[in-house]
Design brief:
mainly alpha, 83 residues, 2 helices
């Protein structure tokens, strides 16, 4: 390999190169695995008890005049003193 260094130094250099390559491959595999696990974890964080709506249903409720007045009064009370 190299004529200027001893046989033991060549073995040490080879061991360091192999260890570096193994470390780099392990690091890349670990980061890829963690990225996949994080994606799976994020997808699993949704609320299962709440159904997902696929469309936007239009719901309307007709209020009587008294109900509208009561609602307006409630809104005024809740927003009193707030910008």
């Amino acid at each position: 390999m190299f004529d200027q260094i001893s046989f033991l130094q060549q073995i040490g250099l080879s061991v360091l190169v192999v260890a570096t390559v193994v470390w780099a491959v392990g690091l890349v595999r670990m980061l890829r695995r963690d990225r996949f696990e994080v994606t799976v974890w994020r997808e699993g964080q949704s609320l299962y008890a709440m159904p997902r709506q696929t469309s936007h249903p239009v719901e309307t409720v007709e209020l009587s005049a008294a109900e509208r007045d009561a609602f307006a009064t409630l809104v005024r009370q809740l927003t009193d003193g707030r910008p």
